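To whoever picks this up:

The nightly regression suite flagged Kinase as changed. Nothing in the input moved, so I suspect the structure step. Input below, exactly as stored in the fixture:
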Amino acid sequence: MTRELAPPARLTEAGRAEAADWLAGLPGLVAATLDRWELTPERVAAPGGRASMTVLVRRADGGRAALKICAPWHPAAREEAALRRWDGLGAVRALRCDPAAGALLLERLRGETSLRSLPEAKALLEAVSVVRRLWVEPGGPPGGTGGGEHPFPTVEEWTAERAARLRDGELAAAEAEPLVAEALALRDALLADEPERLLLHGDFRQGAVLASDAERAPWLAVGPEPVVGERSYDLARLVRDRLHDLVASPGAAAITRRRLTRLADSVELPAERLRGWALFRAVESAGRAWSAGRPAEAEALLEFAAWL
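Regenerated output under the current build:
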């Protein structure tokens, strides 16, 4: 059997209590998948994410690829469905999937180089160029257009449990209560008047767009949390990119509002809808960071939300 590979520290530290057994069995699961798919490991991608482990591998034919093992709360089948739907247009390609094992075999990108390596203005331009390609109808054949059945939750369904946890969480009982109340009210209002239902990346940010050697595009998106809803929801996560740099900048509030306006104008979206989703997503993320014992991150997110 292929030698076992240890999960990166970031995934282990972020592991949920209910996933302790999965984390303990992850090295064995990785090794078994490598053997079954005849893959030769090169190294574990680090620092990695909080919901998956990625191993850079060689296939039996010598081709390079990346084996991603998804955590139980990040279904591999749903990610594969989104990648198949995009069929390489703006996103990494899926080569193989085993939903039961949470395993995805992906084309290899240059994981050490994301849009965060570019100057901010250039990075935002490239990010918008990539994300616009991902906004397609959720159903239909790979790479095509049209409606039809699909396996993706709507933004309303995806955010319902998160909104409930935010409403009942520690932030709602603390000094952040006014921001929590505003975030929840904005979510309700935005969902009551949703203008479109497109397939969205769901977690789109500069760090989720990697350099590619593929001839079809220099930058490709990875790691989707695919949902169906309006474009403003997808763009909202991008508004707070490089948050630590923003927090340290003089005039951070004005910079943030200008960035929001530029992003909305770049894809002809109402700035108020983008502001609403950006605020909700920041406050909701702050609630999760606080519950996970990351108070500094939570405070930065709340400060960002206050600028909006």
